[in-house]
Known about the structure:
The chain is of the alpha+beta class and 108 residues long. The chain has helices at 30-35, 73-82, 93-102; strands spanning 9-12, 19-22.
Amino acid sequence: xxxxxxxxxxxxxxxxxxxxxxxxxxxxxxxxxxxxxxxxxxxxxxxxxxxxxxxxxxxxxxxxxxxxxxxxxxxxxxxxxxxxxxxxxxxxxxxxxxxxxxxxxxxx
Length: 108
């Protein structure tokens, strides 16, 4: 028998980035079961998911904010590196954002 939830839980689907509610009478997809780590959420034992999911091709990290806390040039340089965009180590934030955008990566 498949693992069953004890109550409704809400998890963000990593592919669609949409929050989904899953309840006790629903079949729990593998991606959601991996994200539900609280043992109290399960009615009995949590499912045994030994294999790791394959990374998706568009698994780029979230871009930093464009203003305010967390929007430093350093944060943007780290994001550029993570999405494969080369920038100068001392590039200014706006220059990094422009380079990332020109490479077709997310800057929202």
